[in-house]
Amino acid sequence: MILPAPEPLDWALLLDWLGTRAIPGLESVRDGRYRRMLDGGVVEVARAEGGIEVSGEADPVTVARVFDLGHDPAMLGDDPLFARSPGIRVPGAWSGWELAVRAVLGQQVSVAGARRTAEKLVAELGDGCRFPTPAAVVREPLPGMPAARARALRALAEAVAGGLPLDPPLDLPATRAALLALPGLGPWTVEYIAMRALRDPDAWPGSDLWLTRAATSAEAERWRPWRAYAAMVIWQVPS
Q1: Which CATH number belongs to the domain containing residue 36 in this structure?
Q2: Residue 129 pLDDT > 90, yes or no?
Q3: Which of 37-76 are b and which e, b meaning 16 or more Cβ less than 10 Å from the residue's Cβ?
Q4: Do 151 and 100 belong to one domain?
Q5: Mean pLDDT over residues 94-118, rounded?
Q6: Whole domain around residue 33: which residue ranges?
Q7: Which alpha helices (DSSP H) does the chain contain, by range?
Q8: Is the pLDDT of residue 239 over 90?
Q9: Interval 141-182: pLDDT, tens
């Protein structure tokens, strides 16, 4: 299946982001292709003329979110920041639940550290080939993490199991408020979830170290309503 995408599409940056965060046993990036285990099968995604080629059984709408195929780069305008990567994308998620868990695991640790913890979670609660369900996170021991982070994950799991939606379409202000009300989920975590799972193009995790170095909150106003894309450029493309 070929899914179209407005050009330019910076495939190398997309794969770099996803590959750096890939959970062993669940997903991988190699030779310009992304592979993911889904429902017992393998989905493979590669660049194709005018978009991407998807092999395996996967929901096209979900794939489009993961690779941000609905974004039109022309909408970003002519700000010099966006000129550093005209084909920038905000990678999405196979599920909002999974992305939210990974955001919590990434709090105040390195990307590599968060990935190792996620790998343990998948191995012990997801049989090594699927992401754990909210029910599993509520009831099973959580490996390799501080007690406060485990409490945050369980509170998140209980909220999702209780009906909190984390996949579009949804009410962005209400979802943000519900997430912020959970223990252990502060503004950075919620804005990161909003960027990648809730698909808010203007989400801005402003307390992030790299973002605060790049721009004050007032300076970042010039990138509205595309601050999520500005954040991705700052994180991925050296000035």
Answers
A1: 3.30.310.20
A2: no
A3: bbeeeebebebeeebbebebebeeebbbbbbbbebebeeb
A4: yes
A5: 95
A6: 2-70
A7: 11-20, 60-66, 80-83, 96-105, 111-125, 134-139, 147-161, 172-180, 187-196, 209-214, 217-220, 227-236
A8: no
A9: 998 789 999 999 999 999 999 999 999 999 999 999 999 999
